[in-house]
Task: inverse folding
């Protein structure tokens, strides 16, 4: 693309996304693919001409340990990578108990998207029914996702994080095609089968969000 054409496209995107802001808490445990989940969203946002800031992912040093990161997307300049309490639009969690840690970050109109498969990394891990009750009692709109089952339907349990991207895409204000292009770019070097696998996982997640 010629530079003048590229700049024109950027200006057009700026108009489309005027006033666009998303503050997202990413949560899970080590080994669940938080980095990949974040990278797909990052690339989709940048492909759309948006600005991003992402805080360092914490907790990756210990597999099974708590992992979290703040991700901010905007059509304007972003000055901090940290989301203040009460200002997050979305919690995307790959592990249900981790949602409870970050509820104070959600705004009044915030949404929770969480996988329902637990990673019992502590001795006194609560019953799943108790966790779900506590999440529901928070009063926030919540989408519970059987990401493990959906990933198996896609063809690999390792695509749970991509399933969650598909669900979240409905709430991020970014065109579906941008996510698909990001997946093609990220996994292209691994061959067509892997690209197709991840695109299928994304699509199944996307459809789950529509159904919910």
Result:
């Amino acid at each position: 693309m010629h530079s003048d054409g590229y700049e024109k496209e950027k200006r057009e995107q700026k108009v489309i996304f005027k006033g666009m802001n998303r503050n997202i808490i990413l949560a899970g445990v080590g080994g669940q693919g938080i980095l990949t989940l974040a990278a797909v969203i990052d690339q989709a946002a940048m492909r759309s001409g948006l600005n991003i800031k992402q805080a360092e992912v914490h907790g990756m040093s210990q597999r099974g340990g708590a992992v979290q990161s703040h991700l901010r997307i905007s059509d304007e300049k972003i000055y901090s990578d940290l989301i203040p309490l009460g200002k997050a639009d979305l919690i995307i969690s790959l592990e249900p108990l981790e949602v409870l840690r970050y509820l104070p970050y959600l705004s009044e109109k915030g949404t929770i998207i969480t996988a329902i498969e637990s990673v019992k990394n502590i001795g006194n891990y609560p019953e799943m029914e108790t966790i779900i009750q506590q999440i529901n009692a928070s009063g926030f709109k919540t989408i519970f996702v059987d990401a493990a089952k959906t990933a198996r339907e896609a063809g690999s349990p390792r695509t749970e994080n991509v399933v969650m991207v598909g669900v979240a895409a409905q709430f991020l204000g970014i065109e579906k095609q941008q996510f698909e292009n990001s997946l093609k770019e990220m996994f292209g070097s691994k061959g067509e089968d892997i690209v197709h696998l991840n695109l299928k996982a994304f699509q199944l997640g996307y459809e789950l969000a529509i159904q919910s």
Q: What stands out?
A: The CA atoms of residues 90 and 193 lie 31 Å apart. The chain is about 45% helix and 20% strand. The chain has one domain: 3-211. Helices lie at 3-16, 34-47, 96-102, 128-137, 147-154, 160-169, 176-187, 192-211.
